[in-house]
User: Fold these one by one.
Assistant:
Number 1:
Amino acid sequence: FQVEPTMRCNLKCIMCPWPEFRASQADMAWATFQRLVPHLPLTQELDLTGGGESLLHPKLLDMVQSGKEAGCSVGFSTNATLLTPEVSANLVEAGLDWIAYSIDGATASTYEGIRQGARFQRVMDHLQAMQEAKRVQKSQKPRTMIFFVMKRQNVQELPQMVELAHRLGGDQVVAKN
């Protein structure tokens, strides 16, 4: 079951098709999500990913917890710019099953040229904070994936991305065109 918590985003990625569809207040209403909750036990997985940055939704953690309480495997895709150590610790504690990081460059210049508005080192620090939260809480979850959108500007860095993902504790790299 895929639920789009928000269409808002804090970046301006060069390949993103969504900006023309975004409104200033494009969050799913909490009341709308709560109407979905009784149906969550009918599914195995809750994917809280959409056309925006999931971590911008003020009730994302509550959505994760609702999915876990319903017995779902829960995860979402993120640009990780808002994945602070506190947010990571809360997500690990809530039992988040998987998280997919959108990282389209193994170097700061390539990454920042594609994910405009993000800072490569800050995102790397956030990914390490998630790994630390898992270590502190003695958890194997969430399983971590790196989503790499291949473009002419970055495809030559794919081998470096695989190495970087390994160093960061990533479980999988998904390269898409």
Number 2:
Amino acid sequence: MTITLITCTYNAEPVLQRTLNCVLKQSYADIEHIIIDGKSKDDTLKMAEQYKATSNIQRTGHKVTIISEPDKGLYDAMNKGIRLATGDYLCFLNAGDELHENDTLQHMVHSLQPLKELPDVLYGETAIVDSKGHFLRMRRLSTPQELTWKSFKEGMRVCHQAFFAKRELAMHTPYDLQYRFSADFDWCIRIMKQSKSLHNTRLTVIDYLNEGMTTQNHKASLKERFCIMGKHYGWVTTILQHLHFIIRLLYKR
């Protein structure tokens, strides 16, 4: 079984190497790594090319594809990655993020052995790390034991990077480019709506870099998520859920 990792970059030189290193160190061999670069002006592309050369020498069964051209933003780049993917499952590994352990993908595949057929989605937990890769905390929203598309009424219960979708499903479900900061939230819900089975690996899958794009654009992201929730869950449910969020926040204070 081949797993496709898609990394989208733009001037990612300060954080990219840690991501490339973590993929090189994976004990699982059948990896396709697609790097979609938005025509970076720093040494991002040079680093990616050096990584590809190293991978060709050190790894068997590890395929690296690099595309560097202007795009319409992060989610446009992700759509390009989906179209190029050939693996059984695909996942988006941002520049700066890492797979939690060198055996993470091996353990994920091993967790499928008792199953009679491959599930449509694999998912797991996420650890938050700082710019040096040091553990800060586990993600605030914990992963539900049994994930469904309705789980995201309470927020994004599974981190985008810890969400592995079957390629065939993703190919027919591109990111909606009307959303600039939260298209991943919408995409995961749409994938889950079409899924017959979702598998909890019960693993910590991703070390997520604390300062992602959504974190940096927090208010705009929240507005988009509100609209996305209204679209999928209905406006009454969405408004009531947000009132619950506010009351819970005030109670904690």
Number 3:
Amino acid sequence: MVEIYRIGVVRNEEDIIEKNLQWYIDDGFPTIILDNGSTDKTYEICRSFQGKGIVLTDQIPFQEHDRELSLKALGSLVLRADIGWLLLADADEFYESPVPGESLKESLVREIQLGYNIVQFHNMEFWMTEKDDVTEQDFFKRIRHYSYFDSNRYKLFPNVPGLDFWGKLGHAPILPERVEYKVSTNIHISRHYKFRSIEQGLEKISRIRPPARRKDSSFHYVRFTPDESSFIIPSQFLTEYDDGGNWNLDRKFDGKRMSKKELMDYLGISSEEEFRNWLNKRGLPK
């Protein structure tokens, strides 16, 4: 039997964590969660799932947001368990099969049985808009507009000795040289809910800043400001979600990311070749 463990790092996600944990547990994914020093009820909620889908959870606070170090700490937890396959998913990411009506677990197991060891995901970013019904408590029903951003997310991989899933900040695993990358052409879906309310958005951007040691981490939050309107995206720039599983793969909205020139200046990159090399290092080897 193919066993796939969902793994993830969380911090201050009390508005979403229960729904997120249940999403994967209900689909048959045993779960390992590292809490990065939550100051709300996130860790308490995770602990309540111990033995009910969560097989291991721990809390290791870091003084600043550091994606690489927190994922590396998660890797230390994973090494405690005898696990064959890992599915890395953050608290605001809800993965789906690209086939409507098919469970994620069924789809991923089939990919493994076909001989693939890496599964890729489309990043569908959902945004708050002026059309949201703010009285609706379920954010799945409230936040209905999205834009595709990219597919540089390789989230299913084998737990082999020498695995590194933190060096590329969770975008892609680094497999040991003896292991060949066998990437499925069947790209799956990630429904990504970065911001679910103004309050949650303000708290998130206040703590998620690139650490001094790695400016290429979490830089996509830099352009969000404490202005509440920063989080409300006009619906005309987005695609309205339909329940039929018909996804629009046009990038209609850039998620307020920096332009190429701004990013190069920010990272201190001076040439096109250096920029291409930086981009290539964030994904799988070519």
Number 4:
Amino acid sequence: MEKEYLSIKEQIELFKKRGMIFKDEEEAAKKITFINYYKIKEASLPFFRNNKYLENTTFENIIFRFYEDRNLRLYFMRIIEKIEISLKTNFSRILGREYGEVGYLNFKQWTDNDEYCKHYIKYKQKDFNIRKIKNLHCSENRLLKEYGNNINKIPVWLIVDTLTFGEILELYKLMKMDYKKEIAQNHNISVSIFISWLENINLIRNLSAHNSNVLDVDFKTKPKILDEWKNKLYINESLKLTGRIANTILIMEHLTVAINDKFPGNAIKKCLLRLYNKDINIVKQIGFRNLDKIKELKI
């Protein structure tokens, strides 16, 4: 079914028809000029029931929520960068220490042969080599230029700079268990939990990088959580923890503190408190048990 084109004024009228309140339509029109109608609609979904907006839902509050969601994504990206750099640094240090600067090219010697068959390892090495060429072509790292076409001479601690978060995560999973344990222990966590966390962070990174709503995300695959977090997270009517963003925030907090216990954070906490001041329901919507648990955050 094709959607009919709507002018900015008609978009405002459609929102109003569904019960949204506008305090300043002229200012709202300016916002809609630069913010896609569907982005605004996406931010408003928690207040939309049975094709109508809840009573007292204002355009201005929805725009505020949209901007704070954007801020949260930016804060996430800042923390994810720290985690990504840490993972890459640990990965390259171990392989460099054990096999030299280009030993990473021989997957067979550093991968977990008990976990993965030789055919899978050969496939992953071939895939890595294809991606490596593509990544090197796109990389802006000036240190790579001195190697010219000698791509097999590039040391491991430099090649990791060209990898995406998802790519370094896949390589981490391939490592021998002793190496995985060393890296996980450096982040004060077990291997299985660390992998679960990294997979969750990779998902939220992709959402954040593509400007997708993160306040209302509900992960189908929930990351593993620590026992001490159970009193921090909201339990739904089925007595189950939700797949909301609170899980990811606690994961980021743990890893950030493990990497730098003097991290001058609180940006995420301040963002959530600003949202709470506009809508007290935000606490359970994002998966925290109560406001105090947000106030306790260190990031």
